[in-house]
Amino acid sequence: MKITWVSLFVDDQEHGLRFYTEVLGFVTKHDVPVGEDRWVTVVSPLDPDGVELVLEPTSHAAVRQFRDALTAEGTPFTSFAVDDVDAEYRRLRDLGVHFTQPPAAMGETTTAVFDDTCGNLIQMHHHVGRPAGESDTEKKEN
């Protein structure tokens, strides 16, 4: 068993697609009309055959309640790995992205949290001391 799709609810799929591709740098994998909405997925350009992030519509009332509660608490919906949180923080901040938490060291991990402009707080993280691209499994095997 492996993870192939992970859903993220966005207020507007077109706006979400622009933010996740033009600002964050993901690449569109699928964009298929499905009734009033679309099946929209993006992937990392570093792993185009990897896990797809599904930009889901927020039409169900429970979705908005859930996301609003997380945002009110300052809790990120999900987390993305980056090679250097400080560098990515500067890059995104220069593009106008609003951060609710600047880079902060937390043991072996550094994190930062930003508003994705689509209704979510997103955390980005990297593990200190791990070479870029090395996974937890590879680190344990070495």
Secondary-structure blueprint:
Layout: E1 5-10, H1 13-23, E2 27-34, E3 37-43, E4 52-57, H2 61-73, E5 78-81, H3 85-94, E6 99-106, E7 109-115, E8 121-127, H4 136-141
Parallel strand pairs: 1-4, 5-8
Antiparallel strand pairs: 2-3, 3-4, 6-7, 7-8
Q: What characteristics describe this protein?
A:
four-stranded mixed β-sheet, single chain, 4 helices, alpha/beta
Please explain how this structure is put together:
Residues 136-142 have low confidence and may be disordered. The protein is an alpha/beta fold and 142 residues long. 28% of the residues lie in helices and 37% in strands. Strand 6 (99-106) and strand 7 (109-115) form a beta hairpin. It has helices spanning 13-23, 61-73, 85-94, 136-141; strands spanning 5-10, 27-34, 37-43, 52-57, 78-81, 99-106, 109-115, 121-127. The radius of gyration is 16 Å and the shape is globular. The protein contains four helices and eight strands, in the order E-H-E-E-E-H-E-H-E-E-E-H.
Series of H and E elements: EHEEEHEHEEEH
Rg (C-alpha, Å): 16 Å
Q: Oligomer, anyone?
A: single chain
Q: Mean of residue pLDDT? A: 91
Distance between the termini: 25 Å
Helix content: 25-40%
Biggest beta sheet attributes: 4 strands, mixed
Q: What proportion of the residues form beta strands (DSSP E)?
A: 35-45%
The gross shape turns out to be globular
In total, how many beta strands? 8
What is the topology, as strand order, of the major beta sheet? 1-4-3-2
Find the structural class using helix and strand composition.
alpha/beta
